[in-house]
Fold this sequence. Notes:
Elements: H1 4-8, H2 17-61, H3 63-81, E1 84-85, H4 87-95, H5 100-115, H6 128-134, H7 140-147, E2 152-153, E3 158-163, E4 169-172, E5 178-181, H8 189-193, E6 197-198, H9 199-203, E7 210-215
Parallel strand pairs: 1-2
Antiparallel strand pairs: 3-6, 3-7, 4-5
Amino acid sequence: MKTFEEELKRPVVRVENSSIKPYFGKAVEFYSDKVKEYHNAFSEMNKYIDSLEEQLDYYKKDKRFEVMADEILKLKSKNKLLPVVPQFVADWFENNKDNREYEIYNINADISEIYRGKISGVNRKLNEIQKWFDNPKNKPIETIIKMQDGYTVEKEKKFWLKNKVTGGYLYKFNSGGFIETDVTTYNNRIYKKQCLFTQQEIDNMETGSYEQIEVEE
């Protein structure tokens, strides 16, 4: 009967040198090739870096490129400071560029008259551009002045208006007037566009029974 120590003794496995040598040789050859590949890749990368540094030194010596770099930086800085305005403000700005100061005065005068109840009829409420000028958060005068050096038009959010009762979507005609339709069943892009409303348009409408659904264009 074997003792406990004899049972735990690791068995002797005889591996001939001739049997393992071919596999070991292949492994060494494989990794040697990989090391050579990486070495060559790093060597090429270093050559490329040296080439870039030489080009950079050349450009640094040429004043023309220095001036161009300064101009690019100025343009980037300027673009960051451009005011961002809604499309209707941009439209007003362009439509009144020949007599802008006078039109600014007119808008503020009209706003004052509306608040004093001096204007009646359809013009007794502030329109879209008047509301924008009347909102101090917009810094209207400062913004208009800055726009003379350029501006960016903000991308307005668009919404579908879905009737909470009927489930229909509001469709607007170019000539005026509205109907309800099921916009989700149509793939016509132009048709769907007629069902899109900006927040400014919605604010000027009575849409109490309609749900606003934001649409990604």
